[in-house]
Amino acid sequence: RRERERDEPVALTAQRPDVNRLLVDLLATRVRRLSDQLVEALYASVEDRVVRRLVDLCAIYGRDSGLVTVPLTQSDLAELAGASRPVTNRVLRGLADEGLVVLARGRIRVPDVGALLASAP
Fold first, then answer.
1. CA-CA distance, 36 to 78, in Å (whole number)?
2. What pTM does this model have?
3. Which pairing describes strands 102-104 and 68-70: parallel, antiparallel, or unpaired?
């Protein structure tokens, strides 16, 4: 059974070479993303990582500009940024003081994603 499961993808790629190309493209994209994340983890400041993740989340939960509500907690954002919650809170409070975010229970509102993006390194 295991042998058959292992042989099925090989047979599929032999029959459909375009599947092979798709798999290579997907793997290359994943390796590139992981490499970028590693470089960011090693060289970007924690503040930069928090802002970048928030910008990424705005693209997922909203638009590239205008008001976006990110329905995640500060702890969630901290985990995504590879930061501690207290540091993430400090960064978010600084952004709030600049009017770039509005903090609420269980969510972060970004009134102007363009302005947040402009503040991102």
1. 18
2. 0.72
3. unpaired
